Amino acid sequence: MKIKRILILPLFFTLFGNSAFSGEQKMLLENEKNTIGVFQKNVRSVVNVSNIQIARRGVFDFNPMAIPAGAGSGFIWDKEGHIVTNYHVIANGDSFLVSFHKEKKQYKAKVVGVEPKKDIAVLKLVELPSNLSPIQTGSSQALVVGQKAI
């Protein structure tokens, strides 16, 4: 009898244990649903920016090494390939690689503007992918004081 209980218990948790977790998604707050919706709507506009620094071991080092110095996110601003990111992501970088969601190919980008005090930078893609999707922006005129904006 004891062996039957031991065998039935794992079966019970396997069949019914996951149902508790599946209900969690239904209990999302309205605020969470909104954030998820914004992400799903704009995921193709968000990019990963990799900061590459060129390092030399000495003055006479003729084989410099490309070293990953940092990474961060950014978003595509327009069809011309401008990308908005944070200054600290690109600070002290020698070259930059941009990758898109679920894409293996990386694209080179160059810095076209920075404002270190506001921690903002603008990059421009050297080569434009065919499926470039700029971020969808809203109107700040429609906002009221205290309203959440993403």
Describe this protein's structure.
This protein is of the alpha+beta class and 150 residues long. It has a domain of 82 residues: Thrombin, subunit H. Helix content is 28%, strand content 32%. It is built from 3 helices and 6 strands, in the order ααβββαβββ. It has a 6-stranded antiparallel β-barrel with strand order 1-2-3-6-5-4. β2 and β3 form a beta hairpin. The radius of gyration is 24 Å and the shape is elongated.
Descriptive terms for the model:
150 residues; alpha+beta; Thrombin, subunit H; 3 helices; 28% helix; elongated
Question: What does this entry show, briefly?
Answer:
By secondary structure, the chain is an alpha+beta fold. It has helices spanning 2-26, 30-42, 87-90; strands at 46-55, 65-76, 82-85, 95-100, 106-115, 120-125.
